Amino acid sequence: MRDAVLEARDVSVVFGGIVAVDSVRLAVAPGEIVGIIGPNGAGKTTLLNALCGFVDLAGGVVLLGGDEVTALPPYRRARLGLGRSFQDARLFPGLTVREVLLGAQHPAFRSGVFSEGLRLPLARHDERDAITAVGDVLELVDVARYLDHRVADLSFGTTRAVELAWLAARRPRVLLLDEPAAGLQQSEVAVLGDLIRRIRGDAAVVVIDHDVPFVAGLVDRLVAMDLGRVVVEGDVGHVLHHPDVLASYLGGRRYADVTGSDT
Description:
alpha/beta; Rossmann fold; 2 domains; four-stranded antiparallel beta sheet
């Protein structure tokens, strides 16, 4: 994919003698939402970790915006526009929601520690811009009522919403979402797809989740993995009704109604 903003070329990850990700190729274009499905142990989260730099590659390369980032640590990839959520929302539990969202703006500050400590004009300007940016994020994710609540005091669903707001505040080029629907009530899952579409802007999104109907209703394209390999990829109907996918882990006819057809 020539215009891919994120690309994995023959990426492999090995733990001891176990091949967790085996020569995976993946390309995602700006504005595209790609879902990755598969059973436990398929290598989905390990693939996201490889894209983020949390695990070393045994082979292959990762490109972000056409530039190779394989050797860069996670924080460098984040600064280049790679955003990541986790199965358990990793926010600062002792901070308020307001502080978390303001903190998301800090990489864009032009002032340094010295300016901030002395409250110099440039630091005050950065703070005003950050407050404005938080207001913009609150128009996308309605967590304004929780601004002065500590993250540790929030429900799981609200914490997930704050995490997505934090990601939106970073204005990423790529969003990697690891099981965003996990642990949510069904009513929360029902609105999660619209929330993800709102926060992404023109960013590319890669989402993995075991809730197949949720993923199928959200994505433009599906990738099915098993035992570290890509089984099949393509449009939702093609993947969910592919014989290898049905035989491997989707339980036969169980998901035949997801795309409104039978097989």
